[in-house]
Amino acid sequence: MPIPDSPALNRRQLLRSVGIAALALGALGATSACSSREVVTDGTAGGEGPITVVDQYDNTITFDTPVGRIVSVIIPVPSMIIGADQSTARNVGANKVAISLASAGMLGTMFPQFLQTPVVAGNDFVPNVEHILAQNPDVVIQWGDKGDDIVAPLRNAGLKVLLLKYGTQEDLEAWITIFGDLLGKKPEADDLLATMAADRAVVEKSARAHAARAPRAMYLYNAPEIKVGADNSYMDFWIRLAGGRNVAAGAGSGSSLAVTREQVLTWDPEVVILGNFEPTAPEDVYRDPTWAALSAVKNKRVYKAPLGGFSWDPPCNESNLMWLWVNSVFFPDERHDLRARIAETYRHLYAYDVTAADVDRVLHLPANSVSSDYDRLFRA
């Protein structure tokens, strides 16, 4: 699972053997080639050092010079750094899932050089310390809530490690603030937080207005394995925020809770949102006879979550667009002018002018056009 709740760390013992001697591998890695619109970070951007950053575990990390080389084991982080910089230059190592999502989504189109970023971890978040040292990073960004076994090898190798935690909107806002400090982009971070706050207020107002007809909704992280977003997940947050009732509430915890077909049939969701970490499309669900009795299937209300600079279903720097999208899906009289908002957001975050075809791709328009109201809501 790309953003798991309890990853299996099957290389931990091997990593414990990586010691300080491995620092000899720390030759400079080649930086990615930059497009003509990129702002190249050469290690002097962001003002003069020292820079001090406090992570989500109250660890204080100090840098004598501005941070120019960042490795992220965490999947959404590279797209957020690119969105702050309009450049891939600081990303010198990434999770393979981040690169896969970039290839499938818009990030690889906007910044094709990111697809050549060295891979330093997979979906278990176990860092390849040798590969990381070879990139000579100023800092490594890693999860702090999934055990010390994926953190200690990095620190034992003499690397500076910035720890984040996953799951809530408050955590996402903390990431944005931390990256603003780390990158010398505090005004940009504050602007993004203000935009999110304004959009949240819009969606909350809509949800209150439509409270009497809140749909039974379900986020399906993995359709073949029937894994859903339950309590204490970001998906539960945006379902409730947008005015829905999460049918998986009370069934368990996490963004990928395994449930049975019988449970789903009993819950009978009226709207189903499909995640981007496996390829199931609405038509696949409509064709599956085991789901024929679901209200969401009968009424053609199954939708694939958008995939932009990052997938919109987990927290990212485009999450406010996800809230607006879900609110429109739940209540089709709420339009939000989402196509224009996508174009505005991409100019602001990525210095990129999207085409109509780009927006169709972000919104999974071909796949979602088989579902109720989608063309009316989102086609140009």
TrEMBL record:
Domain of life: Bacteria
Domain Fe/B12 periplasmic-binding: 69-334
InterPro entries attached to this UniProt entry: ABC_Transporter_SBP (IPR050902), ABC_transptr_periplasmic_BD (IPR002491), TAT_signal (IPR006311)
Gene3D superfamilies: 1.20.58.2180, Nitrogenase molybdenum iron protein domain (3.40.50.1980)
Coiled coil: none
Family: Belongs to the bacterial solute-binding protein 8 family.
Protein name: ABC transporter substrate-binding protein
Organism whose genome encodes this protein: Gordonia alkaliphila
